[in-house]
Amino acid sequence: MMDVIVVGAGPTGLMLAAELRLHGARVVVLERDAEPTEVVRAGGLHVRSIELMDQRGLLERFLALGTRHETGGFFAGIDKPWPERMDTAHGYVLGIPQPVVDRLLAERAVELGAEIRRGCEVTGLSQDEDGVTAELADGTQLRSRYLVGCDGGRSAVRKMLGIGFPGEPSRVETLLGEVELAMPRDELMAKVAEVRETQKRFGVVPLADGAYRVIAPAAGLAEDRAVPPTLDELKAQLVAFAGTDFGVHSPRWLSRFGDATRQAERYRAGRAFLAGDAAHIHPPTGGQGLNLGVQDAANLGWKLAAELNGWAPAGLLDSYQAERHPVAADVLTNTRAQMALMSLEPGPQAVRSLLSELMDFEEVNRYLIEKVTAIGVRYDFGEGHELLGRRLRDVGLKRGRLYELMHGGRGLLLDQTGQLSAGGWADRVDHVVDVSEELDVPAVLLRPDGYVAWAGKDQSGLEDRLRRWFGAPTG
């Protein structure tokens, strides 16, 4: 029997597999498609996801294949500069196509010992008090202690579990593709800039190899969004908005997406869980979808591993939904708002103009960008220090950096006093005595996902939080 079956080899599933393998869980990833997709549905990592890659020692791999952007325009396309004094050591967006993200995370999962089986479609699920049985399209069955559906917005796992997916259907649709364009580049980009003065859902982005990524509003809603648009359909929409089709030809791939917003009623059904797009879908405004899923995986992975390894305190697995459901609900809200602000109707345009003025205030600009980049997330851990429930940015220590100490995915007690102890939890929590000029608190206890579980200097208070998040002490 496996420990965990992960259904879906996208960023969420692959990140989850790697997180589970850090703690020794036996993991298999089942992916319906025989080959990795080349469709670029997301184009980058936001700050919180960049921090997670740094915490796991993966960031250099991503930086080598991505491009840093310190640019605004991430909230509803309102062009404001990147906020100053953001609470992070990684104040940028990393442009990197989703297929590259998938490949890097797959390589990491396999390095750690996860198995990835492609061309394996899950067609049935059943569970009992001991585990979950997955039925595959070829008639075989696979048994595991837990299963996580990371299989996208049309999640078969969610449907088989009977979990409701309420929300709002798509009202508008957008065409997307990688193509060749015959129009000279200077002329092309001038025309695109002209169109984007009013139509923020239109765009043409040059790619490194001379091709272009093209985005244009569709004429209406397709009966089946899984069916890609034709080249003629894309041409017609380019002409409709730009007065020219730019000489578009030779598409590598074409796709379409809507602006539906839906969220699973619950993220858990017995021994099965949902994560990523299987748990929530929303418009791609602000580029939050891939990042939200990766962060789901970072939250669930160590908790599920704790249960498998026998030390999870009561309620730890249920805290996954308690923490992540409100975060996704907030993303659904802000993407709905962004879509409304991109409407060409007079009312939304008036609100957009007012918000643009408000974003000239540094605090407003920072607040909105911290929302999009997820560094403003605060979990409800109860009353306590202002850091409690927040992720802690990478800080310099006398002997290195904080994030360098988190590669193993364990809890971390950073002790600037040298007088505290986590001895009963040494198999789960690293105790590091070091000092930082950037950290104005005697000590902090970090969960494996980087969020502050306790801050202070009192040993009894520390032990209460150790028990809450890391279970009973040993010895």
From TrEMBL:
It holds the Pfam family Rng_hyd_C. InterPro entries: FAD-bd (IPR002938), FAD/NAD-bd_sf (IPR036188), RIFMO-like (IPR050641). Residues 2-334 form the FAD-binding domain. It comes from the Bacteria. Keywords: FAD, Flavoprotein. GO terms for molecular function: FAD binding; oxidoreductase activity, acting on paired donors, with incorporation or reduction of molecular oxygen, NAD(P)H as one donor, and incorporation of one atom of oxygen. Its cofactor is FAD. NCBIfam families: rif_monoox. This is 2-polyprenyl-6-methoxyphenol hydroxylase.
